[in-house]
Amino acid sequence: MAEETHQFRVLEFYSGIGGMHYAFDASGHKGQILKAFDINTTANEVYAHNHGKKQLAQRNIEAVPIEFYDKQEADVWLMSPPCQPYTRTGNQEGSKDNRAKSFLYLMDILPKMTHPPNYILLENVKGFEESDSRDLLVEALAASGYEFQEFLITPLQIGIPNSRMRYYCLARKTEKVGSFVHPVTGTLIGYIPSLDAEQNETKEFVDGRKQGDLSGLSTPAAKRRRTSISTTTLTKDGAASKPDEETILADPTLAHRVDTLDRFIEFKDTEDERMKKYMISDKTLLKYGRLFDIVKESTRRSCCFTKGYYHFVESTGSILQMVHEKDTATTFDEAEALKAAETTDETEKAENQAKALALLRTLGLRYFTENEVAQLMGFPILEGKFSFPATTSLKQRYRVLGNSINVKVVSQLVQYLLTSSTNSESTKAVGTEAEGSA
After folding, report:
1. Class of domain 7-247+405-427
2. In whole angstroms, what is the distance from residue 428 CA to residue 291 CA?
3. DSSP conformation letters of 183-222
4. In CATH terms, are 7-247+405-427 and 267-368 the same topology?
5. Burial class for 143, CB neighbours closer than 10 Å (0-12, 13-18, 19+)
6. In this model, does residue 219 exceed pLDDT 50?
7. Quick one: pLDDT at residue 203?
């Protein structure tokens, strides 16, 4: 009888609107999401709308006993812990932040489990790699017999015109499932290694950290060494560098591999009635318009969309200029000149303001729709596999998207994580249904 493909048993932590679920489905591997943990009611409503309620567990992760996690006998843990403790706009308290509590709990129980996962994927913001939480992650993985590889990856690298640099850690329990397709480096790498056997030679890299030498791992000196290692990044040719999204776009060879925004745009007609709720308000346009990151459909990038999009102006995501033939800078310069014109006549001043506003309106500036943002983040909108419940407000939709992941980047990482260097027996087995519920 022919062997059956392994059915991976997956626990999805901090499941949000189901990004990890979609990423696993898109990875090409077969499996079952046993439980999806999240305490955000809005995110869970979106998850249930698309995936059903069966696997949802609206529980605090740290309130679930280790016995439950052991009983699941999950092969894979997928997780995207809260990023606020590590963001440049947050308080950067790392493990001291109360929002890190559940992640610390998982790292605490991991070495104590009878049936720990064979594979782990963690996603977080750039900055996590320099936090004490990263040190605790490394310690837990080492204590539990995992081999791990760390990454800094942006969607631009796989052709998606969106800047969303993120930290990823992939870990495999080598005693059970063997090593990665490529040897681990002990550094952050700035690319996803190829699974194509013909390309292995050009993308091979050497482990300079000596994976087996883990003595003194928890000493302050070792932590400092790991932090210095983690901020070194290797490109695919083995050169050490810092990942730089602007460099990718400045390189003509790399930039032309990135799609233009055109194919992600849902609405292009400025007269479309559906556009009204997405247009920039007159007050915001006059007062803050120049602070926006403004892009056109021909642009090959957009800024990272955060949960503050549609609510705050700066550093929350790009604004689309629908009238692409208009020169943005010139139009703003002309509007600024009108606003700044010296006059003591209040009527004339008001007329200049009105002219400036009329000029700025000709650009057709609007927010990206929630569906456009979701597409840029890799959610299967066009395939009809992802949508929002009618009860979810526009502001809520942007918030939960801002807290989510790039599905396409993570799907490639899942594919790499779950592929072994050899066709071992551990990669071919049939899972059984999980028992118990949270």
Report:
1. alpha beta
2. 54
3. ---SSEESSPPP--GGGTTTT----SS-TT--TTTTSHHH
4. no
5. middle
6. no
7. 36
For domain 267-368, the CATH class is alpha beta
Catalytic entry in 83, 169, 303, 304? 83
> Which H helix or E strand runs over 40?
none
Please measure the distance between the N-terminal and C-terminal CA atoms of the chain and give it in whole angstroms.
Answer: 37
Which among 249, 252, 365 has a CA at the least distance from the CA of 301? 249
* Structure tokens that stand for 172 in this block: 């495999």
Helix (H, G, I), strand (E, B) or coil at 30: strand
- Provide the residue ranges of all domains of the chain, joining segments of one domain with +: 7-247+405-427, 267-368
pLDDT tens track for 103-152? 999 999 999 999 999 999 999 998 888 888 898 999 999 999 999 999 99
Give the model confidence (pLDDT) of 263-317 as tens digits: 999 988 888 888 899 999 999 999 999 999 999 999 999 999 999 999 888 888 9
- CB contact at 8 A, 175 and 145: yes
**Would you call 303 a catalytic residue per the annotation?**
no
Instruction: In the chain, count H helices and then E strands.
Output: 15, 13
Q: By the 8 A CB rule, do 429 and 205 touch?
A: no
